[in-house]
Every structure is written in C-alpha cells, then in structure tokens.
Amino acid sequence: MSRTLVLVRHGQSEWNLKNLFTGWRDPDLTELGVEEARAAGRRLKDAGLRFDVAFTSVLSRAQRTLALIEGELGQGPIETHRDQALNERDYGDLSGLNKDDARAKWGEDQVHVWRRSYDVPPPGGESLKDTGARVWPYYIHRIQPKVLSGGTVIVAAHGNSLRALIMALDGLTGEEIVAQELATGVPIVYRLNADSSVASKDVLAG
Prior knowledge:
With about 210 residues, the chain is an alpha/beta fold. The chain has a domain at about 5-20 and about 35-85 and about 130-205: Phosphoglycerate mutase-like (Rossmann fold). Helix content is about 45%, strand content about 15%. It has 8 helices and 6 strands, in the order βααβαβαααβααββ. The chain has helices at about 15, 30-45, 60-75, 100-105, 110-115, 130-150, 160-170, 175-180, and strands spanning about 5-10, 55, 80, 150-155, 190, 200-205. A 6-stranded mixed β-sheet has the order 3-2-4-1-5-6. α3 links the parallel β2 (about 55) and β3. α2 (about 30-45) packs across α3 (about 60-75) and α6 crosses α7 (about 160-170). Catalyzes the interconversion of 2-phosphoglycerate and 3-phosphoglycerate. It is an enzyme of class 5 (isomerase). This is 2,3-bisphosphoglycerate-dependent phosphoglycerate mutase. One of its GO terms (molecular function) is phosphoglycerate mutase activity. It comes from Aureimonas phyllosphaerae.
C-alpha cells in the first residue's frame, strides 16, 4: 500500500522570468523551466517512484512539466487527468502586468495585500481562499481516493493551487500558508495514513 502523493509546481515559465502576474494566462516554460522539470523527474526516478495516475491543470506550463517528468521516469505514459480546478489562482485585472507596474498603479501596500493575504482577491480575480474552494473538492473527490486505495499519484500544478492543497494536508492557517514560498520544479512527497492524515513529508530539493 503505497498511499503516496507527489506535488510538483511547474518549472519556471516565461512570465515568471519577466516578473508578470500569470494566473490563467498560458505562457510556456523557459529553458530553465524545462531543465527544472527534467531534474524533478530524475529525482523522482532516483527515489524509486513509479506513478499509477497523474493530475494536472488545463494550462500548458503544468502539462509540459508533467510530460518532461514522464520522459525522465521512463515508465511509459501515465494515465492523466486535466482539470481547471487545478489551475493557478486567477489574478483578474493583474494578469499580464509586471509586478512593479502594478505597484506603481495601485500602490505597494495594496498589491502586497492582494498577493499575500488569504482572502482578499485582486479586482476580477481570486483570493487563495477562492482558489482552495475549487481545489479542495477536486482533491477530496478525485485525487485522494486514488491515493488512499494504495496508489502512487503525482499532481503537476501551480504555486497557489498547490498552496491550497498543502494548507489542507499540513493543517496550516491562511496566514501560515501565504507566507510559504513554493519552489518551481521541486517535488514534495507525501505518504498518507489510511485515515488520510499525513504519515511523512519529504521535499526532494537538489
């Protein structure tokens, strides 16, 4: 009974590099992002992990990260489910803006609140709490049953959709989770108990 859940944030995207709010926009990975994804696959292979099923968002940077990981694992195609429930937080009117330009327009304090508060959304967008409201039901109904049945499951997604999952798994408050940074392309390996609680957590950093 493996009951293993691996979370991976996509590799660096072109808009990460340009310091832009990305949200549901769909830029590709940079060369560094491609290498980060491949390195994640190598670390997972070195850890002896083989996956029964994969979940990802409908955004190409997460899907390509998963495909690159698959290529490094060498186990053949993994059954994959794609759903917008796992998409990045929607930044609304901030999407596509340089973060410095957004600070100039709305003020540093306001942009900081939108980026780092738990339940205050930017104009036209989602807060982290809103993001969790779509991520958590999808996890409970689609992902968690695969893990608890003894499977080894990988989720390739985004900084904030994964923060929402980590908040639930680790039992963190909203204030605690928004303070956590999530590195691109670094797998987090959870092993769950039969009651869905966390037995262990390992970060496979380089």
